[in-house]
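Researcher: I'd like a candidate sequence for this fold, 119 residues long. If you have to choose between options at a position, lean toward the conservative one.
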C-alpha cells in the first residue's frame, strides 16, 4: 500500500511539473524577444531564435510587447536593425497588413517595409 501511495505521488508531481513548464517558457521567450527588440540587438535576437529553434513567421502572431505586435513595437521604439530583420523574414501579406502601424515609426523601417511589399 505504501509503495502504491509513493508511486502515485511521484507520478502526480511529475505530471504537474510537465504541465506548468511550457507556459513559463513561452512567457520567458516573449519577454526576451521584447527586450532584444527594445534594445535593437539583432545579433542576440537571431542567436536566441536559433538556439530555441524558433522562426519569426511562426511566433509573430502570438507575441505582444506592451500591447503591440513585434513589428509595431520595433517601429515605436526605433529599433531599425531588429525591425528590418523581422520585415525580411515575415511574409509579404503580414508586412503589408502592418504597414499602417509602421507609418508612425522610423523612416528606415517604412522604406524597408515598402520595398518588401513592392518586390
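Model: Candidate sequence:
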Amino acid at each position: 500500500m505504501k509503495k502504491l501511495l509513493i508511486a502515485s505521488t511521484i507520478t502526480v508531481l511529475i505530471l504537474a511539473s510537465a504541465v506548468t513548464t511550457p507556459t513559463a517558457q513561452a512567457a520567458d521567450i516573449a519577454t526576451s524577444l521584447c527586450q532584444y527588440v527594445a534594445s535593437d540587438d539583432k545579433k542576440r535576437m537571431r542567436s536566441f531564435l536559433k538556439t530555441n529553434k524558433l522562426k519569426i513567421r511562426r511566433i509573430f502572431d502570438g507575441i505582444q510587447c506592451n500591447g503591440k505586435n513585434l513589428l509595431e513595437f520595433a517601429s515605436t521604439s526605433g529599433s531599425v536593425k531588429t525591425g528590418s530583420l523581422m520585415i525580411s523574414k515575415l511574409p509579404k501579406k503580414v508586412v503589408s497588413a502592418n504597414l499602417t502601424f509602421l507609418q508612425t515609426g522610423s523612416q528606415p523601417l517604412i522604406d524597408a517595409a515598402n520595398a518588401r511589399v513592392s518586390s
